[in-house]
């Protein structure tokens, strides 16, 4: 019996063990050398990532409250990978920070929350996982301890996430009132699409919308991204958002399959607004982090297209896209993080003539941005291709024809997004600047992370087996 | 019959409690002194616990009083005293905003009332047992209907929240010390 617990909850137990190792490290001695400590923590995270590939099993525990499968193990491992890359990239920033064990404890607590959320079979466990994955993040956003803007970001994050949790909880409580169950399987049988259930579902989606910052629930995003330390920003925009999207897909496809006609229209509208407005705002940003914030909002719009597919393809394309998104977005954030840690410059204008002194970093940023824009040789193209394919093959449930309107809007938006991604590339390679950023030296760990990111961006698109593998797990 | 509709004592009690909760909530929103608004909130929460007593879930009612009345409202009052000038009146809301909010409230009320009224609720089966020993047993059971996993998840959440609080709170003390040192240095220079 204990074997079962150990094997099925392996991912969660690994993260918890690392968390407690760090806790005891912190409690043990007063001052530690930061560099060996960071190396040690990174090795632990690497072990955690490797262990995600071993001995994966399927099953349920705790009276159907917790379940796991090969697919969930894969999703958890994508999140592990994202956390590892971010940890490698934040080496430069953390080297001088006083609270390294605390930083990782909070980070791992949020990761644990995401794992519980992914594995939940039950709205209660889902809600607890969600809280566990957002409340420590607010503390993390405050980790530039002597900057006011960082405190402001934390404040905005905690208030907006409390508000969205309120909406979500109200939705959940009304669902419970009308169906009498919190379990996904029973919920899917009990849902009849009565007006009260639809209202509660709308609140449910609004809560989700806040968390993955779809428009009109995006207002916190840019401010929080700008104020937080870059490591936390990239964690918010990649790992946290990826986890929420995974959960969103599985909850919609499992628990709310009965009212698919309702959420198809809802997602259609949100997706169109999110893509368009996200892009239009991204056009006029001057700060690199704000720019990446709006770019990540518009990426969510594209992901929602894939979700409207209501098919195994939809689910597989979302997971595939998030995997690629981890590499391409973290490549971009890695460069911004490094430059910000060394020179404290974050504006797009500062990046003019970046190529003059930093050839390798310019190429890394350029390739990542190409991938985010979805230009063919990079993996981002394949990710968006599968998303649109899943969205275009829609509606065998709601019985509509292929939604050409949605695809047309998406195509137009890809053109707009190309403009602003290329604007940064132009600034780096072509624009002149009197005071270009000096040569930025990266240490070993950030360099490893860049190699992983660029390798992922360039190779995943051509390794066709990956999408096939995800698709076989989803089916 | 003279009375088209008549109510049992239990129903009357329910409406009295509900009116109490709503009235106190309304006063908490409209009063212009922030300290009074916290006190009205306290009464509103006491009303909610009365509602739990009315439902005969005594344990939940006790938890409501201990956690919300005893804990959270006291916390709110502390933070009001620490940050705000609790005696001063806040500015009056503009008339436009008042009208808009009245309409919003009326719409929200009518909307939810209609939805709930039209909904067919399924009545539950079996007896409802919310005794303390039952709750305690379920909290620590790992099998069917057990809540051991959420219980553990909450404990990790509390640990993380504590760590986060300590880090952020430690920051202000060191900053203040630094700031005070600088101030002291400046005054010395002068």
Feature tags:
heterodimer; A: 475 residues; mainly alpha; two-stranded antiparallel ribbon; 75% helix; 1% strand; B: 190 residues; Four Helix Bundle (Hemerythrin (Met), subunit A)
Structure characterization notes:
The complex is a heterodimer of chains A (475) and B (190). Chain A is mostly helical and 475 residues long. Chain A has one domain (2-474). In chain A, 75% of the residues lie in helices and 1% in strands. Chain A has 21 helices and two strands. The longest helix of chain A is centred in the middle third of the chain and has 32 residues, at 148-179. Chain B is mostly helical. Chain B folds into three domains: 9-90, Four Helix Bundle (Hemerythrin (Met), subunit A), CATH 1.20.120.1200; 92-121; 131-183. Chain B is built from six helices and no strands. Chain B has helices spanning 9-30, 34-54, 58-83, 95-118, 132-139, 148-189. In chain B, helix 1 (9-30) runs antiparallel to helix 2 (34-54) and helix 2 (34-54) packs antiparallel against helix 3 (58-83). The radius of gyration of chain B is 24 Å and the shape is globular. In chain B, 10% of the residues are buried. Mean pLDDT of chain B is 82; it is low at 176-190.
Briefly say what this structure is.
The complex is a heterodimer of chains A (475) and B (190). Chain A is mainly α.
In whole angstroms, how far apart are the ends of chain B?
Answer: 90 Å
Percent helix range of chain B: over 70%
Task: List low-pLDDT spans of chain A.
Answer: none
Report the count of strand segments of chain A.
Answer: 2
Q: Largest sheet of chain B at a glance? A: none
CATH topology grouping of the largest domain in chain B: Four Helix Bundle (Hemerythrin (Met), subunit A)
- Assign an overall shape of chain B: globular
- Our Rg estimate of chain A from Cα atoms comes to 21 Å
Strand order of the largest sheet of chain A: 1-2
Distance, first to last CA of chain A: 29 Å
The CATH superfamily label of the largest domain in chain B reads NADH-ubiquinone/plastoquinone oxidoreductase chain 6, subunit NuoJ
Helix and strand content put the structural class of chain B at mainly alpha
């Amino acid at each position: 019996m204990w074997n079962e617990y150990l094997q099925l909850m392996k991912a969660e137990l690994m993260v918890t063990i690392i968390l407690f190792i760090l806790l005891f490290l912190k409690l043990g001695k007063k001052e530690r050398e930061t560099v060996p400590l960071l190396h040690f923590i990174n090795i632990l995270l690497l072990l955690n990532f490797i262990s995600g590939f071993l001995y994966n099993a399927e099953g349920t525990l705790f009276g159907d409250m917790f379940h796991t499968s090969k697919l969930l193990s894969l999703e958890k491992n994508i999140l592990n990978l994202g956390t590892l890359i971010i940890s490698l990239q934040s080496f430069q920033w953390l080297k001088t920070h006083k609270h390294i064990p605390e930083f990782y404890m909070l980070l791992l607590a949020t990761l644990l929350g995401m794992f519980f959320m992914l594995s939940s079979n039950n709205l209660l466990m889902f809600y607890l996982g969600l809280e566990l994955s957002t409340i420590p993040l607010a503390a993390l956003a405050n980790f530039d301890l002597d900057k006011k803007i960082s405190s402001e970001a934390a404040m905005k994050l905690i208030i907006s996430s409390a508000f969205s949790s309120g909406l979500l909880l109200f939705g959940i409580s009304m669902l419970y009132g009308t169906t009498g169950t919190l379990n996904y399987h029973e919920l899917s049988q009990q849902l009849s699409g009565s007006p009260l259930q639809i209202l509660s579902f709308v609140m449910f989606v609004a809560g989700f919308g806040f968390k993955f910052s779809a428009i009109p629930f995006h207002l916190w995003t840019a401010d929080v991204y700008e104020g937080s330390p870059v490591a936390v920003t990239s964690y918010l925009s990649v790992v946290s958002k990826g986890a929420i999207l995974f959960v969103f897909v599985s909850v919609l496809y499992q628990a709310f399959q009965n009212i698919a006609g309702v959420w198809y229209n809802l997602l259609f509208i949100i997706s169109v607004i999110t893509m368009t407005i996200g892009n239009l705002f991204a056009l006029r940003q001057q700060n690199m982090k704000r720019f990446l914030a709006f770019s990540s909002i518009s990426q969510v719009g594209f992901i929602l297209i894939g979700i409207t597919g209501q098919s195994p393809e939809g689910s597989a394309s979302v997971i595939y896209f998030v995997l690629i998104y981890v590499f391409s977005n973290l490549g971009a954030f890695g460069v911004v993080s490094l430059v910000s840690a060394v020179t404290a410059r974050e504006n797009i204008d500062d990046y003019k003539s970046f190529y003059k002194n930093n050839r390798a970093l310019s190429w890394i940023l350029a390739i990542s941005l190409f991938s985010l824009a979805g230009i063919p040789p990079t993996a981002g193209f394949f990710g968006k291709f599968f998303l649109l394919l899943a969205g275009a093959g829609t509606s065998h449930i709601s019985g509509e024809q292929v939604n050409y309107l949605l695809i047309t809007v998406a195509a137009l938006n890809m053109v707009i997004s190309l403009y602003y991604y290329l604007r940064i590339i132009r600034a780096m390679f072509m624009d002149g600047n009197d005071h270009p950023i000096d040569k930025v030296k990266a240490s070993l760990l950030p360099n490893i992370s860049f190699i992983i990111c660029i390798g992922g961006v360039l190779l995943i698109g051509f390794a066709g087996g990956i999408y096939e593998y995800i698709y076989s797990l989803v089916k | 019959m003279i009375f088209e509709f008549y109510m049992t004592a239990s129903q009357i009690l329910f409406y009295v409690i509900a009116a109490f909760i709503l009235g106190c909530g309304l006063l908490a929103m409209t009063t212009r002194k922030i300290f009074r608004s916290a006190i009205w909130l306290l009464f509103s929460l006491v009303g909610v616990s009365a509602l739990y007593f009315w439902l005969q879930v005594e344990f939940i009612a006790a938890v409501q009083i201990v956690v919300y009345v005893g804990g959270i409202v006291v916390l709110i009052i502390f933070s009001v005293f620490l940050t705000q000038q609790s005696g001063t009146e806040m500015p009056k809301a503009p008339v436009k905003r008042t009208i808009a909010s009245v309409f919003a409230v009326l719409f929200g009320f009518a909307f939810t009332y209609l939805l709930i009224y039209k909904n067919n609720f399924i009545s539950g089966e079996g007896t409802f047992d919310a005794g303390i020993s039952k709750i305690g047993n379920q909290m620590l059971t790992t099998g069917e209907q057990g809540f051991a996993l959420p219980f553990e998840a909450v404990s990790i959440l509390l640990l993380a929240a504590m760590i986060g609080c300590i880090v952020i709170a430690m920051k202000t003390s060191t900053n203040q010390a630094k700031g005070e040192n600088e101030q002291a240095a400046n005054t010395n220079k002068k």
